[in-house]
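Input chain follows. Return structure tokens only.
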Amino acid sequence: MTRFHDRFERYFNRLWYEQARPGFGWRALSGLYGMAARRHLARDYGKPPGPVIVVGNITVGGGGKTPVVAALSSELLSAGWRVAIISRGYGGRTSDEPFQVLPADDPKQCGDEPLLLARTTGCPVWVCRKRGLAMHAAFDDGADVVLSDDGLQHAGLPRSFEICVIDEARGFGNGQLLPAGPLRQPVARLDLVDLVLRKQAGGSASVSGLPGQAFAIEPGQAYRLADRQPVDLPSDQALDAVCGIANPESFFATLEHLGLYFRCHPFPDHHVFDSQALASLEGPLIVTEKDAVKLESLEGLPETLVLPVRASLPRSATQPVLEHVRNFNST
């Protein structure tokens, strides 16, 4: 099943980001999808009991949403608000009952991104297939404000503020709606959100003319997976860069920008890693924090280094969010 999913994802990534004009069959299906998508552009999602800030995108896959959620949680915590995070829990065995993610949880149960957020933000993280139930659980637990990692298109989630994140390296792909392209919704959806953020491409090529306020993804202090002790990344030794995120090229571009020598091993997003396959690599491995939460339980790996990243958001991006929360809670 995992191999089929991997091949499936690779095929569509080639179709969406390397093929400018998909075949007629794919475009016909996109036309049907588009009729439904356009009808829901102005959907009324309802008013939540407290401020709910949805950080999503209009394309399939990642684009920097989780680092943005982590950065916003830090800003809101510093301002004195009790913050909770909610997630669908992709890659985990989630249910229709919300549950709180604990730092020692298994990513196979809760998903890799919720576990990473639970460990790094200091905020309660709630997971449920029905994000609306996760939202209510968060407020019942005492949250003043809820951040949703993804969920822009989730009909059952009331929200008060929407943020759309665009990946500058990928843009909107071939510009087609699903399944011919990566767009979940037409680009016109951007006119309805409160804030558009554009993740800078770093060392990789970028798509020009994209809307939104630019922000950078910055590497942090690397550490060893085995004992979480900080390490200096070797500049004179080849590494095996193992990456299972939506756009592995962004991770490889960061490593190249740091002047590292490495061999690329890209995997699909939320990939379930196999210890035998990774043990055959020469090493040392270098991985993202998102992948690290899944690798720490595997045995027999070469020395593994973890490179965390953070979203550096400009004040012009964080200020509207802080003002929204203040205004919501004062009315």
